[in-house]
Specification:
This protein has a three-stranded antiparallel sheet. A two-stranded antiparallel ribbon has the order 4-5. A hairpin with a 4-residue loop joins strand 2 (68-75) and strand 3 (80-88). Residues 1-15 have low confidence and may be disordered. It folds into two domains: 10-101 and 141-178, no CATH class; 103-139, no CATH class. The chain starts with 9 loop residues before the first strand and ends with a helix. 43% of the residues lie in helices and 17% in strands. The protein contains five helices and five strands. The protein is elongated, with a radius of gyration of 21 Å. It has helices at residues 23-29, 34-59, 96-101, 123-126, 145-178, and strands at residues 10-11, 68-75, 80-88, 103-107, 134-139. By secondary structure, it is α+β, with helices and mostly antiparallel strands.
Length: 179
């Protein structure tokens, strides 16, 4: 769903990718301290999301390229690490989803949004805009986020999984060296 944000400062399209089939890693991770497990998971998610970020930047039109970024978030209490790649907002590129999905071209004010609930007041009207605009055309979609996700999902998963195993092994070796 475009326009919703999971992290403050980011506006992204939602893609959920889970690495569930890594049972061997889960068994090993139970024996490691939680801080190490989360650090390893952050590295794996970061490496996987970098593939999406780089391809989105490559596909993005014009000035949107420089506004594509990745944010990794950790919820230690739930043992959850997730990454978000999208255009940074507010003020940077809040229009990126309009480019991705297309939009109406409006002149002379604003027009009501399609699908407003009965009795609701449009945001433009609350902001004091006229509401006397007219739709003069439609800007076609220029998808760049969804194709990048479709093209790189398996590669990103493979990189994340490889990083997960490699970094876990490195962390276990560090623990053994310390003792």
């Amino acid at each position: 769903m475009a326009g919703q944000t999971l992290l403050p400062g980011f506006m992204e399209l939602d893609f959920i990718v889970k690495i569930d089939g890594v049972k061997e890693w889960e068994r090993v991770a139970k024996r490691l301290p939680e801080t190490i497990v989360l650090r390893v998971a952050r590295k794996a998610v970061s490496k996987g999301m970098a593939i999406f970020r780089n391809d989105i930047k490559r596909r993005a039109p014009g000035s949107l390229k420089r506004h594509v970024a990745t944010k990794i978030k950790t919820y230690a209490q739930d043992n959850v690490v997730f990454g978000v790649t999208g255009a940074r907002t507010p003020g940077y590129a809040p229009h990126f989803y309009l480019v991705e999905m297309g939009h109406r071209m409006v002149l002379g004010g604003t027009v009501p949004r399609i699908g407003l609930r009965a009795g609701s007041v449009p945001r433009a009207k609350r902001a004091g805009r006229t509401g006397k605009g007219r739709v003069v055309g439609h800007v076609p979609p220029h998808p760049f986020v969804r194709p990048a996700e479709d093209a790189n999902k398996t590669a990103a998963l493979a990189v994340a999984e490889t990083t997960l195993f490699r970094e876990t092994k490195n962390e276990m070796n560090k623990l053994l060296r310390v003792k």
